[in-house]
Amino acid sequence: MHVRRFLTVMAVTTATAATFSAPTTAAQAGKSLTSVIPAPAEAWPDARQAFRLNWGTVIFTEAGSREAMAVGRQLADVLRPSTGYPLPVLPALARGHGISLLLGGADARVGQEGYQLAVERDQIVIRANTPAGLYAGTQTLRQLLPAQVESKTRHQGPWVVPGGRIVDYPRFAHRGAMLDVARHFFGVDEVKRYIDQIAQYKINRLHLHLSDDQGWRIEIPGWPRLTSHGGSTEVGGGPGGFYTRSQYLELVAYAKARYITVIPEIDMPGHTNAALASYAELNCNGIAPPLYTGTSVGFSSLCIDKEITYKFVEDVIRELAALTPGEYIHIGGDETHATKPADYVKFMQRVTPIVAKYGKKAAGWHEIAKTQSDPSVLPQYWGTDDVDEEVVAATQRGSKVLLSPAHKSYLDMKYDRSTPLGLTWAGLIEVDTAYGWNPGSFIRNVPESSVLGVEAPLWSETLENSDHIEFMAFPRLPAIAELGWSPWSTHDWASFSRRLALQGDRWVHQGVNFYRSPTIAWTS
Ligand code: TNX
């Protein structure tokens, strides 16, 4: 075993030596320090300072920080299979030819999630105030390496990183993706795969739409039929599924290791057929409806005047709050066409304090804005125009707003008329449309200071597996991610579309089933 390993090492060393003499530079490969998504806030390329990863490269991480070491290990896990290099991860006591991930000493502007990156001939140094910032820096570094680095199999290199300095930090605190696991259920591995994909673009929130008419996807103590019955199907009549408590915790931890906070959503009082089918007593008439596997919306409602409704809601919120470290629980509240307007207000005014009782803030689809004076409640705007008086009023009372305008950010809309998956109710969304709006001035009379951030929702009426998820999310998710992270001064379609083309090369190596939009000059 030892000998074999030694021989492999020799072979790799020889190959490396050969490639070292090749004159390829990162610039010749069409890549520069700014060829990344999201665009960095500030960058100073320096053509004299390219760094080459080699067999001896070490990843040094802040001594004494387990989190920094974990970030270093994740970086090594990406780079090892393709480069074949050992890339040991060691505490940054020693210096040497390496990539250092260090806490402290960064430019003040990097804040809690940003980083600075310096690429020199003999070392790369990423500095941040937090491990989250280090993680963001390593995502940039990945993209600065040739696309083949994303492969699970060995490639030749050379593994050149263009030289220079970056100082980078987010425009908005909340950069989200939503996955609807209710219309079609996605298993733990499928969700992890999506988490890995979105983390590359500095997405820091994953909103899981855990319940809807077609399915209930999370175990709740005391209410076993929610999952055994309510979780037993999905759109089209497939087997559905649900997460056990420990599976949900596993997803939360997996996301957290990638600096993504899970926001669980239980949609109510509408979009509740799966719960109503599971427990007759939740229905005003006491009769459980059948399970639903179609795609209509707006036909179900919890019974607003029954006390059992609020015991149910409290049991659900208590459990979600206990399982979720993040500050928000999303309580839905959209499309409640089967709930009288006065009942909707009554319901939300009773339910939002329950969220606060368990130490969390409530998020809700923007209809919730009409029921609230509590400025901690976060309306999520999903409308298709730029005027909404209720949202404006909420922001004037001090609420922040989360933006996911359906005609721009809905990843489940078709790209064009021939897209085989997806819906069209909010329009056709090519990648330039997804990219072409400014969250800071999108809703009339909502200033940038009232915008918490952006989210790209992926509803799953037509989506059944990871291939489908990827086809709809890529390339549009990176467009929304850039709107959330990069300063508006960097906003430029020509630049974005060139950088997006390079992402396509990475997706090929990652096995991501992306949509080859004809508007992009893909390079592979
Ligand atoms: C509207 S957007 C919905 C969802 C659907 C989606 C399909 C929103 C808050 N509600 O129930 O899945 O359209 O695009």
TrEMBL record:
PANTHER family: BETA-HEXOSAMINIDASE, BETA-N-ACETYLHEXOSAMINIDASE
Catalytic activity field: Hydrolysis of terminal non-reducing N-acetyl-D-hexosamine residues in N-acetyl-beta-D-hexosaminides
Entry keyword set: Glycosidase, Hydrolase, Signal
InterPro entries: Beta_hexosaminidase_sua/sub, GH, Glyco_hydro_20_cat, Hex-like_dom2, HEX_bac_N
Documented EC number(s): 3.2.1.52
Organism: Kibdelosporangium persicum
Source taxon at top rank: Bacteria
Family annotation (Gene3D superfamilies): Chitobiase/beta-hexosaminidase domain 2-like, Glycosidases
Residue span, Glycoside hydrolase family 20 catalytic domain: 172-487
Domain Beta-hexosaminidase bacterial type N-terminal stretches: 34-169
Native organism taxonomy: Bacteria, Bacillati, Actinomycetota, Actinomycetes, Pseudonocardiales
Protein known as: beta-N-acetylhexosaminidase
Signal peptide stretch: 1-26
Family according to the record: Belongs to the glycosyl hydrolase 20 family.
